[in-house]
């Protein structure tokens, strides 16, 4: 019967040939250090959370995931604001390595002061935009391109189609009017958008024609 690994033993879970934690502890030599690292991560991420994070990666990457989680947890305790990335960025990566060694030995982690943790790491401003060679290229960078019209403009003016039953009135004659072909009666076009009506003479001629 195969014995349980040091990680499953401290977590009080069953261990088998397809154990997830066993390959993750191979880089730690001491059995006590393996148990200390597993307990520390289980308290930091939770037992279920730790197993989910490890199982999220492929088998050949799980040892690296376990080690990355250990460094991230130690860096977060040393610097609660910026974590391990802040320690690496500010040149204090040795503090994160010392915290990992303390975890493996079962010793507490020393946290830095709040002023040091809140200090912004030294950075240098960089412009990630494209640097053009031309002097006037900076103005063209913020220039908005003109959109092309959707419809093509015709080269000549569009003329209205001729209507065989109507004859347009002469321009410059005042109110617009339409004359029936073969008739002298003009149909006035009202300005308020109402129905068009015939002139007074034409309407009287229509009433007289209806009587006959």
Outline of the structure:
With 212 residues, this protein is mainly alpha-helical. The protein has helices spanning 6-11, 31-45, 47-55, 62-78, 83-89, 93-105, 114-118, 137-141, 200-211; strands at 166-168, 177-180, 186-188, 197-198. A hairpin with an 8-residue loop joins strand 1 (166-168) and strand 2 (177-180).
Oligomeric state of the chains present here = single chain
- % residues in beta strands: 5-15%
Strand order of the largest sheet: 1-2-3-4
What's the average pLDDT?
75
Supply the number of helical segments.
Answer: 9
Order of helical and strand elements: HHHHHHHHEEEEH
Radius of gyration, Cα only, in angstroms? 44 Å
Sheet of most strands = 4 strands, antiparallel
**Could you say which structural class the secondary elements and strand pairing correspond to?**
mainly alpha
Number of strands: 4
The best one-word shape is elongated
Distance between the ends = 127 Å
Low-pLDDT runs of 5+ residues are 177-181
- Proportion in helices: 40-55%
Structure, explained:
The chain has 212 residues and is mainly alpha-helical. Helix content is 42%, strand content 6%. It has 9 helices and 4 strands, in the order ααααααααββββα. It has helices at residues 6-11, 31-45, 47-55, 62-78, 83-89, 93-105, 114-118, 137-141, 200-211, and strands spanning 166-168, 177-180, 186-188, 197-198. Helix 4 crosses helix 6. The radius of gyration is 44 Å and the shape is elongated. The N and C termini lie far apart (127 Å).
